[in-house]
C-alpha cells in the first residue's frame, strides 16, 4: 500500500526534478495568450478582452506560484535528503525588484534590478545570485554586487504584459527570498505608414 503520510516537502522534492518543465509552462502560456490576443484583435469588445486577460493572468499566476515554490525549495537534510543549494536556515532576506521602464516597445532594452536586504544589525554582506523570471520562465541571472544589488538587461520580451519576478537563492548566512511581481508591458512595434500613390496627372 502506498505511503499516505506525504508532506509538502515530499511533493516539492518530486516536482523539483521537473523544474525546467514547470518553468517552461509559463513561457508557453504567455505565447498562447499573445497568440489569442492577435487572433481576436479588433473582433471583440473591451469587456470580453478584459475577461480573457484576467483568465490568463490567473492561470499564469498559479503556474508562477508553483514555479517559485519549486525554485526556492531546498531539501530538508534532517529528512535524509541532500541538495546542492543553500538551506533556508539563515537570516531572513527581502528582495525588491524594479524595472527601468514599465512600458517599452518590442526590441527596447529593459534594465531589471533586484536589491536584496537582510534584517538590520547583521554585519555580514549578502552574497549570491538572483534569478530573474518572466511569466514563470527564467530569463537570466545576476550576481549581487557589494551593495546587494543584481541587474539584468533584456531586449527580447514579446509584445504583451509580462509578470517579472526576482528570486535570491540564498547563501551560507542568508535565506532565499522572492520579490513581488512587477508588470512589464511591451508594446508592438509601430507599423510603417504606407506612402500614398501620387494622383495621376490630369489628361490634357
Concise structural overview:
By secondary structure, the protein is an alpha+beta fold. It contains three helices and nine strands; from the N terminus they run H-H-H-E-E-E-E-E-E-E-E-E. It is elongated and about 90 Å long.
For the structure shown, list the relevant keywords:
204 residues; three-stranded antiparallel sheet; 28% helix; Immunoglobulin-like; alpha+beta; six-stranded mixed sheet
CATH architecture: Sandwich
Helix content: 25-40%
Please state the average pLDDT score: 78
What about the largest sheet? 6 strands, mixed
Cα(first) to Cα(last) distance is 98 Å
Q: Structural class of the secondary structure composition?
A: alpha+beta
Share of residues in strands: 25-35%
Backbone shape:
elongated
Low-confidence stretches: 76-87
Total number of domains: 1
User: How would you spell out the order of helices and strands?
Assistant: HHHEEEEEEEEE
Q: What is the class in the CATH system?
A: Mainly Beta
Tell me the name of the CATH homologous superfamily. Immunoglobulins
CATH topology: Immunoglobulin-like
Query: Radius of gyration, rounded?
Result: 22 Å
Contiguous helical run count: 3
Number of strands: 9
Amino acid at each position: 500500500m502506498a505511503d499516505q503520510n506525504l508532506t509538502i516537502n515530499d511533493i516539492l522534492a518530486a516536482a523539483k526534478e521537473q523544474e525546467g518543465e514547470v518553468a517552461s509552462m509559463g513561457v508557453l502560456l504567455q505565447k498562447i495568450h499573445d497568440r489569442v490576443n492577435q487572433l481576436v484583435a479588433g473582433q471583440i469588445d473591451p469587456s470580453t478582452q478584459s475577461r480573457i486577460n484576467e483568465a490568463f493572468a490567473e492561470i499564469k499566476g498559479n503556474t508562477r506560484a508553483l514555479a517559485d515554490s519549486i525554485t526556492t525549495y531546498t531539501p530538508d537534510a534532517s529528512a535524509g535528503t541532500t541538495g546542492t543549494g543553500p538551506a533556508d536556515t539563515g537570516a531572513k532576506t527581502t528582495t525588491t525588484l524594479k524595472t527601468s521602464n514599465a512600458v517599452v516597445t518590442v526590441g527596447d532594452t529593459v534594465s531589471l534590478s533586484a536589491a536584496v536586504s537582510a534584517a538590520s544589525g547583521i554585519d555580514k554582506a549578502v552574497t549570491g545570485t538572483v534569478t530573474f523570471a518572466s511569466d514563470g520562465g527564467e530569463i537570466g541571472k545576476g550576481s549581487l554586487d557589494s551593495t546587494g544589488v543584481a541587474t539584468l538587461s533584456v531586449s527580447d520580451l514579446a509584445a504583451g504584459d509580462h509578470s517579472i519576478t526576482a528570486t535570491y537563492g540564498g547563501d551560507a548566512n542568508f535565506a532565499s527570498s522572492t520579490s513581488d511581481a512587477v508588470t512589464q508591458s511591451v508594446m508592438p512595434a509601430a507599423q510603417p505608414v504606407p506612402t500614398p500613390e501620387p494622383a495621376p496627372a490630369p489628361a490634357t
